[in-house]
Specification:
The complex is a heterodimer.
Chain A: H1 2-5, H2 7-37, H3 39-48, H4 53-83, H5 100-103, H6 105-124, H7 128-132, E1 137-140, E2 143-146, H8 150-157, H9 161-189, H10 194-227
Antiparallel strand pairs in A: 1-2
Helix pairs in contact in A: 2-3, 2-4, 2-9, 2-10, 6-9, 9-10
Chain B: E1 4-13, E2 22-32, H1 37-50, E3 73-74, E4 77-78, E5 100-104, E6 113-115, E7 118-119, H2 122-131, H3 151-161, H4 168-172, H5 179-190, H6 193-196, H7 199-212, H8 223-227, H9 235-250
Parallel strand pairs in B: 1-5
Antiparallel strand pairs in B: 1-2, 3-4, 3-5, 6-7
Classes of the chains: A mainly alpha, B alpha+beta.
């Protein structure tokens, strides 16, 4: 099977799974922005996505997307290190036009994954997972909170400056990862040429900035709100 | 103005493919900035021979930037710090008095070191042999207007054909990927009528050979394009991906 055996096939899997995760980020951002305008609306989304069968199925597909993307990144990185040979260069210079992010995608991805673990322990574990094992209320900061009361979770965590800063670091890593990942995914599919190369790169930068600033805006908004 | 400079050269010395290599440092005085980099290495070798030492082995042939034989990873750049030239076209005026110049061979699993700065680039020939040709004799030069070819395609094919197969792309790539080379060889033929017929078979065969020889997977860092002495564009890699994926989907 060429998709699993050839180098371009394996990269295509990285590309498609990456684009899928990009779509998910857009969805997640839209959901978060809703919380800024109306906490009730956000909670409606939360209960809609609670532990219903379609939400669980969606989470399964999403998890598969993540696992494929991460699994193949490990596989490809190991293959690439092997292809580099045993002796490393003594002097390395990064040429102009080579973005720092493009040579550090694995490290950036690792940072993003570490923060996903933190994010899951804070939100998902107390929300969808709690519901799946039959709880409808969890204790958070000495209070009992409903598992679908997403707004309460946001307000609780984002009132803590340490959590806010950690999340902002996450968005920066994500920004770097997306600036390269977005256009690189399209290049791998083959939808590129000398003209579109620069266009895709600009679109990638704009997209990554919108995503990172969007998430940062919601985070900072709730921190400032907690101060008032 | 060119002057004579004193330099220190740190050269990778390795007796054979299986031996362990190390750096040796040599001092060279009064090297004319007007001399080429390879002439500087010739001067070094003359000096080593007169001292009864073993000269440094390095590849070179035409010394005018078209054969693709010279290599050398100089101060962190394949073909040295100058852009769009091969090592043989690099001059000592790109270096300063008192500078230490580090010279390494291409380092890639696909290009094992033969001796010192010489590497075995037969892998690229094997990829060409897998499909980088037109199978039938397409005859003499046809009348210019008998087969119209868009100017754009003719130019793109010519740009891709500028690839001299020196291996700088795989040497520059942090993944040891040969994609820029393969994409140039696939593109120069896929863009023209004579080569188009076998385009799908060619892309599949050359990629299969490239993977088999242990070259890495391209992650689009663009280091290859930046270091390529012939400035071959990564848009060729996009074309190769396109050719390969559509060929496989048609199967």
């Amino acid at each position: 099977m060429w998709l699993l055996n050839s180098s371009i096939g394996k990269k295509l899997i990285m590309s498609i799974s990456g684009l899928f995760l990009i779509l998910f980020l857009l969805f997640h951002l839209t959901m978060n922005v809703a919380a800024v305008f109306s906490e009730e609306a956000y909670n409606v989304i939360c209960s809609f996505l609670g532990s219903n069968w379609y939400a669980v199925a969606g989470t399964g597909v999403l998890a598969a997307g993540f696992l494929i993307h991460i699994g193949y990144s490990i596989l490809l990185t190991l293959e690439n290190r092997k292809a580099r040979g045993n002796d490393r260069y003594a002097v390395n210079a990064r040429p102009k036009n080579v973005e720092w992010a493009s040579q550090n995608m694995f490290v950036l991805g690792l940072i993003v994954v570490c923060f996903i673990v933190l994010h899951f322990s804070q939100f998902w574990y107390h929300m969808m997972f709690a519901e799946l094992i039959g709880h409808h209320e969890v204790e958070l900061g000495g209070q009992a909170i409903g598992t679908t009361d997403g707004a309460a979770f946001i307000k609780y965590y984002f009132s803590n400056i340490v959590v806010v800063i950690l999340y902002l670091v996450w968005y920066v890593a994500l920004w770097f990862h997306l600036t390269h990942g977005f256009w690189s995914a399209l290049q791998t599919i083959g939808w590129n040429n000398t003209i579109w190369l620069n266009r895709w790169k600009i679109i990638a930068n704009i997209f990554a900035t919108v995503i990172a600033l969007g998430f940062a805006f919601v985070t900072i908004f709730f921190y400032l709100k907690s101060l008032c | 103005m060119d002057k004579d400079i004193n330099i220190t050269v740190k050269v990778w010395r390795q007796k054979g493919p299986k031996e362990k290599g190390r750096f040796e440092t040599y001092k060279l005085d009064n090297v004319s900035q007007g001399s080429s980099f390879l002439e500087m290495l010739d001067i070094l070798n003359e000096k080593l021979i007169s001292e009864g030492k073993v000269p440094v082995a390095f590849d070179h042939d035409c010394r005018e930037g078209i054969c693709g034989m010279c290599s050398l990873y100089i101060n962190g750049h394949p073909h040295g710090p100058d852009s769009a030239v091969t090592t043989c076209q690099l001059h000592m005026r790109k270096f300063k008095d008192g500078e230490t110049i580090t010279v390494e061979p291409w380092r890639s699993a696909g290009f094992p070191v033969i001796r010192d700065l010489m590497v075995d680039r037969y892998a690229y020939d094997k990829i060409i042999q897998a499909g980088g040709f037109v199978s039938v004799n397409t005859g003499g030069i046809p009348d210019a207007n008998s087969t119209p070819i868009p100017k754009k395609n003719a130019d793109l094919a010519m740009d891709a054909a500028a690839c001299i197969g020196c291996g700088a792309c795989a040497a520059a790539c942090k993944n040891g990927s040969a994609m820029l080379f393969v994409s140039a060889k696939v593109s120069q033929l896929a863009l023209l009528p004579q080569g188009k017929v076998e385009a799908a078979r060619r892309a599949k065969a050359m990629i299969a050979k490239m993977d088999e020889l242990g070259f890495g997977n391209c992650t689009n860092t663009r280091a290859c394009e930046a270091e390529c002495p012939k400035e071959v564009s990564i848009s060729n890699i996009a074309r190769l991906n396109r050719e390969f994926i559509s060929a496989k989907l048609q199967d």
